[in-house]
Amino acid sequence: MSQVNLPPITITAVDYDRLSWIATAGVNSQRYTVAEMLADELDRAMVAAPGSIRPDIVTMHSEVEYRDGVTGEVRRVTLVYPGEEDLDAGRISILTHIGAALIGLSEGQSIEWEGPTGGRRELTVRRVRFQPERMAGLEV
Questions:
Q1: Which residues are CB-contacts of 19 (< 8 A; sequence separation ≥ 6)?
Q2: Are strands 91-93 and 74-80 parallel, antiparallel or unpaired?
Q3: Which domains does the chain have, with CATH numbers?
Q4: Predicted confidence band at 140 (pLDDT cuts at 50, 70, 90)?
């Protein structure tokens, strides 16, 4: 699977450290895995302090609304770590193609990639409905 359209992304230092470990642990040399897609995303990301990240950027545990560029479907999901996913509750793992594509994108950005079976995938972030870093900055 290769990525086609790569917009600039921003990731918090905390997310970067934890996701780097997850991506490294999940790499399989026999094919391009989701862990490798995540590692590629991290390699090109700008890393920011959690308190300085813009509120419209998708971070871990963000609730985000996106549009699937292939089907036109609009979905609302929460991006979570492996083991926290629950599809019925809309909680998707970072170790899914959609999860790895969403991390670091901001509202209005799109990303396009080639799926494992060769089909084109694309999504556009419509709205970051909740971002934990935004709430952390409001606490005193």
A1: 11, 38, 42, 60, 94, 103
A2: parallel
A3: 3-136 (3.10.50.30)
A4: very low
| Measured CA distances, 96 to 22, 33, 38, 52, 100 (Å) | 12, 9, 9, 27, 6
91, amino acid identity:
R
Q: Are 113 and 4 in contact (CB under 8 A)?
A: yes
- Taking residues 95-111, report their average pLDDT: 95
Q: How far is CA 61 from CA 34, 72, 102, 105, in A?
A: 19, 24, 11, 14
Mind giving me the DSSP string for 81-103? -TT--BGGGTEEETTSHHHHHHT
**The tokens of 22 are what?**
């997850």
Is the separation of the CB atoms in 105 and 57 below 8 Å?
yes
What is the tens place of the pLDDT at every residue in 46-71? 999 988 999 999 999 999 999 999 99
Element (H, E) at 13: helix 13-25
Give how far the C-alpha of residue 140 lies from the chain's centroid of Cα atoms, to the nearest Å: 28
Amino acid identity for residue 128 in this structure = V
